[in-house]
Amino acid sequence: MTSRPTQRPRVPHFSSGPCAKRPGWTPAALADAALGRSHRSPLGKAKLARAIDLTRSVLQVPADYRIGIVPASDTGAVEMAMWTMLGPKPVEVAAWEAFGKEWVTDALKQLKIAPRIHQTPYGVLPDLAAIDTQHNDVVFTWNGTAAGVKVPDGDWIAADREGLTICDATSAAFAQALPWDKLDVVTFSWQKVMGGEAAHGMLILSPRAVARLESHTPSWPLPKVFRLTKDGKLIEGIFKGDTINTPSMLAVEDYLDTLAWAERIGGLPALHARADANAKAIYDWVARTPWIAPLAVDPATYSNTGVCLVLADSDVLARGDAAVSAFAAGIVERLDREGVALDIGAYRDAPAGLRIWCGATVETADLEALIPWLDWAFAEEKAALTRAA
C-alpha cells in the first residue's frame, strides 16, 4: 500500500479553466478597479486600452495586427471571426477534441458552408499536411484543451496563402510559440493560461483579416455583438478599448494585474519556461508510472498547459468503460476531498481520466507535491476495487 503523503501542494488549483491565479495573488490586486464607473468613461477606456497594449507587449503581437476585446469569451471571439469572415473561399476545419468539434458544428449546421472536415479521435492530431492552407480558409485550435494535444508548429501553413487561418489559441496563448506570420485570426480568453476571470474574449486580426472584413459582406444575418465593420470599414474603436458591450471592469483589472505580473517575471520567455517546466514534471512522472499514460499519442504534440491523462492499469481497463470512468472519478473525488487537487477530472466529452493544468500561473513545486498524492489515490482506489471484488 502506498503511504499517505505528508507534503501538500501550497495551492491545489489545477483547473483547466478558469485556471489558477498568478503566484501571490490576493483580492488586493483588484483595489484599483474602475468599479461604479462607465467602461466608456476616460478611466474605463484607459484601462481597456491598457489591457490591449499590455497584451501586445507580453504576447509580442506585430504592430500592424489589431487587438480587440470582444464579448462571450474565446467562444464568442472564434464565432465572431467565423460569422464575419467565412464565405468567400472554401473552408476546412480541423477537430480533434470537443472545441474543434464545435467549430465544425458551427460551419456545417449553422453557417451551412459545407466545410472539408479533418476530424480525429481524442489524442490524435489530424494530418495537417492534408489541409489546403494555400487556397482555403482554415479554422483550427492550436492546443486542444480537452485532449492535451497541440499543433507542434506552423510549418504546415502556407506562407503565401490565399485564404485565412482562424486559430483558437485560448489554451496556447502565453504558453506556446505562435507564428504570427502564419495566423490571421487568433483568439483566447482571460481565464485560461493567465488565470484571469471569465468575461470577454480577445480577438487578434492580421492585416489580411481586416482586408477580408472590409471586402466581404456575409450572406447571413449578423447579431450586433458580431459586427466588426460599419459602412464597409473596420470599427477601429473596438481595437482601442471601445468595447461592443459592457465588460466587467473587475475582470479587466484582474487581467491587467496578471499581465503586469508576466512583465515582472520576464515576459513571454518566462511564461513559456514556467509552463514547460510544469508539464515536464507531470510527463516525467507519467513516464515512470505504469498505471497512467498521456491521452496524446505523439510526444511531439504533448500540450504544456492542459495535460490530459488516461488510465493504463490492465486490471482496471479489463473491467470495461464504465468501471474505468468510475475509477477515474474516484481518484478525482478522493483528491478533492483531501483538498490537494481541485477540478482535475477529464473534460466531460473526453475519455475518462485526469486533466492537470500546467500553465505558467501554476508553481512547479505544487505539481511535484501533487504527484505522490496521485499515486496514493490510485493505490487507495485499487485497494477498494480489490475489496469489492
Automatic annotation (TrEMBL):
Lineage: superkingdom: Bacteria
Location of region: Disordered: 1-22
Needed co-factor(s): pyridoxal 5'-phosphate
Pathway(s) the chain acts in: Amino-acid biosynthesis; L-serine biosynthesis; L-serine from 3-phospho-D-glycerate: step 2/3
Catalysed reaction equations from the record: O-phospho-L-serine + 2-oxoglutarate = 3-phosphooxypyruvate + L-glutamate
GO BP: any one term: L-serine biosynthetic process
Gene Ontology MF terms in the entry: alanine-glyoxylate transaminase activity; L-serine-pyruvate transaminase activity; O-phospho-L-serine:2-oxoglutarate aminotransferase activity
PANTHER family per UniProt: ALANINE--GLYOXYLATE AMINOTRANSFERASE, AMINOTRANSFERASE CLASS V
Identification of the protein by name: phosphoserine transaminase
Protein's organism: Methylobacterium phyllostachyos
